[in-house]
Design brief:
It is a single chain. This protein is mainly alpha-helical. The chain has a single domain, classed as Glycerol uptake facilitator protein (Up-down Bundle), CATH 1.20.1080.10. 67% of the residues lie in helices and 0% in strands. It has ten helices and no strands. Helix 1 packs antiparallel against helix 5. The protein starts with a helix and ends with a helix.
Length: 243
């Protein structure tokens, strides 16, 4: 079972289990973490990324992308597209399973929370202000920044002069934390198609008490925006050769 596919599956599962889990803890009634606020959400997601990256590497994925946009960017930079669809399937499957486990973990709490929109927000993102073009741009910018800074963290110049490679997951977690704090207030910073679409499908399928619709009209934005942002960052890195 030690393979890049299984590593991406397990890493994304952990990412979403913990990431959606902090959203559930802050949102659902009767949770000790209820109403903890945005700083808790962004911190939880940052730590979820760190854990997901380490699990992915431990189970066989050296790249530990956990994100179709990062996988696409890497393919553009390297020119190797053969494994893109396989890695996307691992990431999507892992995200769905992570959201399912989170739902089971909080099973008694769903019926205690009356707001269907709040329940949906545990699983996937939505806009603070519904403005599709600007919402898409927010996802493009956030994901492009994610790809560029993550690439810089592991670039030879930074690796030679900076901290040991072993703390790379901590640095990436700090990056995601920074994106959430600085740019996440517009759309909830999906910056990852699997992180949004996998749990959205879980929300649609699972028998969650009192849930509403899954807002499929918005769903293309946190998928296409990150893919566009990742692709643009990949093109920039490929042709600018910054490292």
């Amino acid at each position: 079972m030690h393979s890049p596919w299984f590593g991406e599956f397990m890493g994304t599962l952990v990412l979403v289990l913990l990431g959606n889990g902090v959203c559930a803890g802050v949102t659902l009634r009767k949770s000790y973490a209820a109403d903890s606020g945005w700083i808790v959400v962004t911190t939880g997601w940052a730590l979820a990324v760190m854990c997901g990256v380490m699990v992915a590497q431990g189970f066989g994925s050296h790249d530990a992308a956990l994100n179709p946009a990062i996988t696409l960017a890497g393919a553009i930079v390297s020119g190797k597209y053969g494994s893109v669809l396989a890695m996307w399937s691992a990431q999507m499957s892992g995200a769905f399973c992570g959201a399912t486990l989170m739902t089971l973990h909080y099973a008694p709490h769903w019926a205690q929370s009356p707001d269907p929109a709040a329940k949906l927000g545990i699983f996937c993102t939505g806009p603070a202000i519904n403005a599709p073009i600007w919402n898409t741009l927010s996802e493009v910018i956030g994901t492009a920044l994610l790809v560029l800074v993550a690439g810089a963290i592991f670039s030879p110049g930074v690796a030679e002069k900076g901290p040991a490679a072993g703390i790379g997951p901590w640095l990436v977690a700090s990056l995601v934390w920074g994106i959430g704090l600085s740019l996440g207030g517009t759309t909830g910073y999906a910056i990852n198609p699997a992180r949004d679409l996998g749990p959205r499908i879980a929300h649609a399928i699972l028998p969650i008490p009192g849930k509403g619709g899954s807002n499929w009209s918005y769903a293309p934005i946190p998928v296409l925006g990150p893919l566009i942002g990742g692709a643009l960052a990949g093109v920039l890195v490929k042709f600018a050769h910054p490292w």
